[in-house]
Amino acid sequence: MRDADLAAFQHGDVPFERLVEVLSPARSSAHHPLFQVMLTFQNTANTRVELDGLEVEAAEIDVQVAKFDLQLTVVEQFDSAGDAAGLAVQLSYATDLFDHTTAESIGERFARLLDAVAGNPPVAVGDLDLLAAGERAALTAANATHRPVPADTLVSLFAAQAAATPDAVALVFDDRRLTYAEFDEQTDRLARHLIRNGVGPESVVAVGMRRSIDLLVAVYAIVKAGAAYLPIDPDHPVERTAYVLDTAQPVCVLTRAADDTTFSTAALVEYIDTLDLPRRTRNRSPPRSPRRTRRT
Questions:
Q1: What are phi and psi of 205, to 5 degrees?
Q2: What's the sign of the alpha-carbon dihedral 268, 273, 274, 278?
Q3: pLDDT reported for residue 180
Q4: Mean pLDDT estimate for the chain
Q5: pLDDT of amino acid 285
Q6: What are the residues whose beta carbons fall under 8 Å from the beta carbon of 281, sequence distance 6 or more?
Q7: Which whole-number Å values give the CA distances from 175 to 120, 137, 162, 213, 262, in the listed order?
Q8: What is the rounded distance in angstroms from the CA atom of residue 125 to the CA atom of residue 268?
Q9: Whole-number Å distance between alpha carbons of 225 and 24
Q10: How many H-runs (helices) and E-runs (strands) does the chain carry?
């Protein structure tokens, strides 16, 4: 950063018009062409001019026009003896973008930041709190979302609902419906198929299909097999999908022949709408994923 600053100072006398000409930024009447927020630090004493018989004093002219969206000007003050006498800070803002309350809030937070740094110079910037005590309390109260959560899983909650209301409608998509019993049976059949293919805890199965009942059957079957599902949007760019699959390294990819989607992956691609899965026999236990030995 020091080298960059020194290099920038070497070009301090370059006319602004020349800078804009060379950089040729996109022009817009809505904002400054190069930057929208400016911090100015003036640490030089005012030049005094003495003339016989005249008293000359520099006067600031307030043109009531904001040059940038936000401009923070810090001016070092000097007393009559020429000694430092603190800093004067002025915040200018575009009224089209900020109201007085917002600008005042920005100024208060900046002052709070300076007080915190002055009181504890070694503090890390990320540890500084820009919120007032009342704001922090209000935010904490608004986010007090802690609630007791039962030790259930998606699989156990679904199994309980399927047992309680097997004939109730669980899914509706277009003109197709599935009851809880039918949905439970289809997910069980697909889960067993996945487990036979090596799917289990700590493995990933990609799901690349458009919205359909088959999409939910695939997701619930993967969860029943004990694995994690990776949603893939078939309409995403091929390169992005290939990168995601290469990174996740799924055991397989579940899709539908009806979606007519191809995937660039070494993983097995299975079309669940054409799979011939054996039906569950009566009194057969739900699918269970194989146990894995954790290695250290």
A1: -125, 125
A2: positive
A3: 96
A4: 86
A5: 58
A6: none
A7: 67, 51, 22, 11, 27
A8: 49
A9: 58
A10: 8, 11
> With contact defined as beta carbons under 8 Å apart, do 268 and 284 qualify?
no
Quick one: tokens of 259? Answer: 């979606």
Instruction: Considering only residues 231 and 24, tell me which one the structure prediction assigns the higher pLDDT.
Output: 231
Is this structure's pTM higher than 0.70? Answer: no
| CB of 218 closer than 8 Å to CB of 230 | no
Q: Which of 162, 240, 176 is nearest to 208 (CA)?
A: 240
How many C-beta atoms surround the C-beta of residue 214 within 10 A?
23
How far apart, in whole angstroms, are the C-alpha atoms of residue 69 and residue 30?
A: 10
**Residue showing tokens 């994690």:** 228
Residue 292 pLDDT > 50:
no
**Distance from C-alpha of 238 to C-alpha of 225, rounded to nearest angstrom:** 28
Domain boundaries, the chain: 2-98, 154-271
Closest CA to 285 of 174, 178, 195: 195
Give per-residue pLDDT as tens, 212-241. 999 999 999 999 999 999 999 999 999 999
154-271 topology per CATH: Rossmann fold (3.40.50)
Q: Give the dihedral of Cα atoms 90, 96, 100, 106; nearest 10 deg.
A: -60
d(CA 103, CA 97): 10
Say if residue 232 is exposed, middle or buried (CB neighbours under 10 Å; 0-12, 13-18, 19+): buried
Statement: residue 245 has pLDDT above 70? yes
Q: pLDDT by residue (tens digit) across 170-199?
A: 999 999 999 999 999 999 999 999 999 999
